[in-house]
Amino acid sequence: MEVLSSTITSIATSSMVPLERSSVLWVLIVGIVMAFLLGAGLGANDVSNTFGTSVGSGVVTIIQAYILASIFISLGAVLVGWSVTDTMRKGVVDVTEYFGNPRELMLGQVALLGGTAGWLAITTALRMPVSTTHAMVGSTLGFSLVLRGTEGVNWDEIYRIIASWFLSPALSGLISGVLYLIVDIAVLRRNHPFECGLRALPAFYFFVISFNVLMVTWDGSKLLHFDRIPFWGAALISIGIGSIVALIVQFLVKPRLWRKIQGMNPRYEENVKRDWLLS
């Protein structure tokens, strides 16, 4: 829906053939319906992929996962998603090809929403996890090839997107492997992994929160003027917020976790002291 509305605005204002609202209102209404169906498909397929590890490991319940996903996916779309929206809006398709006939571009955008929503519905029914981004790019490429042929596609952007499809799993696998080795050596292989994990918890929170805040503040949303923040300013903000969260974890979360473990096993502390003496 965001891609569709952004495209309508840009084309209607810059096109040599002005659009009458009454003649395209039905396109907007159909686009909104398709966008909601696409959002439902995204939630049923893409978002559910992330539930597997968190809910399956028992870290959160399914209801908590729903609540957290609703909050943070919305925040991610508002704070970080603008660049992806901009790429899909005018990076894949050469919008200048439609200056003489903007209605074609609007219909193409509605078609890609419907095509992607339909594909997600099929794959979800078949219990196949797929990427909504891949489906959106493919649908955009498809309608542009039909309407304008190869001239209507920004192929440099397409090549860059396709390259990211191969680099993303390779880099994410490498990073996750390195992180697992760090946790394995620093925590899991220790004589008392729970205590080591508690000691390392603030550091993990610091790095995770700092990195996420840096993603939001550095070259961030133009609407919120985050793009005006220099790198050093974004780094200071990230480190500051990460440090505050780490202190909260150190002095509030860790004692609570320790009390919870002791409540589950009243003799836990006694067993730990005995193990320390025997080791």
TrEMBL record:
Assigned keywords, A-Z: Membrane, Phosphate transport, Transmembrane, Transmembrane helix, Transport
Membrane association type:
Multi-pass membrane protein
Which spans are transmembrane here? 24-43, 63-84, 105-126, 162-188, 200-218, 230-253
Q: Name one GO biological process term.
A: phosphate ion transmembrane transport
A GO CC annotation given for this chain: membrane
Q: Which InterPro entries match?
A: Phos_transporter
Classify the main location. Answer: membrane
The entry's localization annotation reads:
Membrane
Is Cell inner membrane among the key words of this record?
Answer: no
This entry's Gene Ontology molecular function terms read:
phosphate transmembrane transporter activity
| Superkingdom field | Eukaryota
Question: Which protein family is it in?
Answer: Belongs to the inorganic phosphate transporter (PiT) (TC 2.A.20) family.
The name this protein carries in UniProt is Phosphate transporter family protein
Tell me the organism.
Haemonchus placei (Barber's pole worm)
> In the record, what lineage is assigned to the organism producing the protein?
Eukaryota, Metazoa, Ecdysozoa, Nematoda, Chromadorea
